[in-house]
Design goal:
By secondary structure, the chain is an alpha+beta fold. The chain has two domains: 4-98, Serine-tRNA synthetase, tRNA binding domain (Helix Hairpins), CATH 1.10.287; 112-408, BirA Bifunctional Protein, domain 2, CATH 3.30.930. Helix content is 40%, strand content 20%. It has helices at 4-9, 11-21, 27-57, 65-98, 131-137, 143-149, 159-178, 192-197, 225-230, 287-305, 351-356, 380-390, and strands at 116-121, 141-142, 156-157, 182-185, 189-190, 211-212, 219-220, 236-238, 244-253, 272-282, 309-313, 325-333, 338-347, 359-361, 367-369, 371-379. The longest helix has 34 residues, at 65-98. It is elongated and about 100 Å long. The chain starts with a helix and ends in a 24-residue tail after the last helix. The structure holds one RNA strand.
Amino acid sequence: MLDIQFIRNNSQLVSERAKQKGYDVDIDQLLGFDEQKKKILQQVEALRQQRNALVDATKKTKPNPDQINQGRDLRDKITNLEHQLESISREYDILLMKVPNVFADDVPLGGEKDSLEITKFGAQDTGAQDHLDYMISRDWVDFERGAKVAGSKFYFLKGDAALLEEAIKQYAINFVIKKGFLFMTVPHMVNTKTAVGAGFAPKTSDDSNEYFLENEDLTLIGTAEAPLTGYHADEIIPEKSLPLFYVGYSPCYRKEAGTYGKHTRGLFRVHQFNKVEMYAFCTPEQSQSVHEKIRGIEEELWQSIGIPYRVINIASGDLGAPAFKKYDLEYWSKADGVYRELTSCSNCTDFQARNLNIRVRRDNGQIEMLHTLNGTAVALARSLIAIIEHYQTDDGKIRVPDVLVPYLGNRQVL
RNA sequence: GGAGGAGUGCAAGAGCGGUUGAAUUGGCUUGUCUCGAAAACAAGUGUGCGUGUUUUACGUACCGAGGGUUCGAAUCCCUCCUCCUCCGCCA
């Protein structure tokens, strides 16, 4: 969520940015609730003050009947006002949670097509066999049996494809560790507080991309970003220990309902995939450079694997609620002759941090919200697509990218 | 899953209806002392919200979470969560 103080002082901007992100929120109504809430709170506190004074006066002696009656009267008034406060607070909270983060000045306005290309790597060759056809021909993937045991868009990876996935994972984790990130495994389910705090839809929402567990306050994670965001919830971190860099590995579960019209062939959009995710906690003044650093790691990593790509600065309408700025790295599909999303990194500024109460204690003792950032190192299913499209040999094999050779028992070809 | 115990400030740990925002000890910060350090001594040391002459101040809330009882709750009652011990089960 945003800081109410910030919304009070910048209501025009917040309202405009929300619209440009494609969110419909009534800032004036929110500020109205804010005013009412404040007014009632002041009344409640004045009454509490009276009550405390009364109690104070009767500390040494037993209260007389008159004082007890006064106390009863105060109690009833306070209870009554507290109920009012509670109901207004509820509406206020709902509205406040709906306000999306603002975004950076250099974020292009508009929708998916308005995202701006920033940089490009490698050639835009064509003529590769489609990954799904190829993998089926090698008996590397089985969607039919995936559907049998779970449902459509579930799959088994088999043989060398599964080994290749493990190799990419190991390579990526080691790559990112060398950049100063601490490797962690994470819970694959999170409670509602954590899920919503990280910016994911709650169970009550009907357009959620998440899987929920019956009779439990648990959501299957769609990304390790969720547990990693919650890792430092309700903590105050000393300034000198920031920035903190973590890299998590986890499966990602996504319903992907209502993805009609989106590219869904093969492994590109599935209900479950594995991902190596970078995460950072830092001070507000560090977050821009940390964002560039994470983007730089993604580029370096994918260059080292030898996959052509471009980086785009995501347009406002595609940013989502938490992101202040987002880069996507899109690999060049040699089979289809288009760029497609491979990784993504976002600066969420203090939006997630405020939800989960994650703060920094400055060297001078001051306390404020810190900033959080996340970025994909490798999303394994899509990584397989990219490699299989770009490393097909003339005799129908897959040449192993040089950097992955040590992770495949020194095999050069699969 | 069953039985029992416990959750208090940075940490350990007291308090079990009013004098407790919270004893005591340790940690940390500052000061005295010292060439410096240690030791000793002294003082300080939470967070949110609101008000204000917005650096000193005042009010209010917070003792796992949420409800309740009461004139008054860290203290009593209820529900939930977490941790520990024992039993069961199990990779």
